[in-house]
Amino acid sequence: MTLLLGVTLGLGLLLVVAPALWPRPARLRIESRLVDLARVRLVQAGLGRVSVPTFLVVSALLAVAASAVVFTLVPVVALAIAAGIVALVLPFALVRSRARSRRRAARVVWPDVVDHLVSAVRSGLALPDSVVTLARAGPETTRSAFAAFEADYRATGNFSLSLTQLKDRLADPVADRLIETLRMSREVGGSELTHVLRNLAVYLRNEAAIRSEVEARQSWVVNAARLGVAAPWIVLLLLSTRPEAAAAYNTAAGAVLVTAGLALSVVAYRIMIAVGRIPEQQRWFR
Q1: Are 200 and 177 in contact (CB under 8 A)?
Q2: Does residue 239 belong to any structural domain of this protein?
Q3: Cα–Cα distance, 271 to 94 (Å, whole number)
Q4: Which pLDDT belongs to residue 7?
């Protein structure tokens, strides 16, 4: 019995000091964060059913296909590799752009969601039932997420857990604030929920109007960046159709020139986009 207690105590102490003795490698933590970020981007883009490995495989196949097509049309190895790199990054850029567009569209409907929720609470419905009504009375773009919330709540009866799953489905900073407000009201209680939600709706409408105006004024910067990056490569592709130009670009100097041009294009594009982009809201309540 004494030996068993000693072994149990030793194992307990070992488990306590294990994180310090064998810390999780930084590389694994970074990979986990990257996978989580990719998963969140897919959800925000409306591609929640697509897994991260599937997305990576499709991107790799697209890169190989683009390289083969470009090398067939323009027999320049450097250009084929550059096309493969661009095709590999393109799905990530499209998902990010689609996620940003969906957040921009959702920014307009969130005040209406809050208004519907205030109306349901003021009519005397319980807070979970008020949230459930958004599956039928809310804006069209958010009904599927709230319908899934209704199914989760009916199955588990756990309001907090269902809110957490709803937050993961929506993956939106505004939704995070709204859901955490509802969670706090449910756990703490109080009669100020409708007043808080009205103030939130007013703030969201003002913020959406301001951001839309600023984005409209700065859209020319983004369009100029895209045109400035695409124009030299279109000219390069046209020049490479000539045999003497293709032979020149297939040399070591030509490969260095194409590689340097690709690097400069990426850096210049990122700078122009950073100048013309408004900082996006961060999700603080994950």
Answers
A1: yes
A2: no
A3: 19
A4: 46
